[in-house]
Design goal:
Layout (H helix, E strand, L loop, with lengths): L7 E5 L5 E3 L2 H7 L2 E6 L5 E5 H12 L7 H13 E5 L5 E3 L2 H7 L4 E6 L4 E5 H10 L2 H13 L5
């Protein structure tokens, strides 16, 4: 992956389910990328390269007779879809993903350094109201206490 996902970009979904992708993110994502349902309140956006790397990790799970691995494989297999950017810089956000992300009209593309997230505006604003600088300091302290430094 070339570049990092940074920033917050507010956009809206049109009546046909089309969504403009921020130009900065398109530079990194290219003309095709993957969007999937994560385990949080947003959708996860992967470059094709990052998706292939993640998919390799998923494929290495011991799925035979292992219900946890089977469910994880099933979850990501059913809920991650490829999208393509049109000439106007838009994608069609599949209905399945719109419903899963609670996306009806206004959305937020949010950078997460390693990938991008796609939120309904309401869920994003609620999340941002909850998270404080103190929460981030405490999270950093917990990581540091566990030997993870950045």
């Amino acid at each position: 992956m070339e570049g990092n996902f940074n920033g917050i970009y507010r956009h809206h979904l049109d009546a046909k389910g089309r969504l403009s992708v921020p130009a900065k993110f398109r530079e990194i994502l290219g003309s095709r990328f993957m969007i999937g349902i994560g385990t949080g309140d947003c959708l996860l956006i992967y470059t094709m390269e990052d998706w292939k790397n993640f998919e390799q990790k998923l494929r290495s799970l011991p799925a035979t007779f292992n219900e946890d691995a089977e469910e994880i494989l099933r979850w990501y297999g059913m809920n991650t879809l490829e999208v393509e950017v049109d000439a106007q810089g838009r994608i069609i956000l599949p209905q399945q993903l719109r419903e899963a992300g609670g996306i009806t009209k206004n959305v937020v593309f949010a950078g997460r350094i390693d990938r991008a997230e796609l939120w309904s505006e309401e869920a994003f604003d609620e999340h941002m109201r909850k998270v404080t600088k103190k929460d981030i300091r405490e999270a950093a302290a917990r990581l540091y206490a566990n030997g993870i430094q950045f």
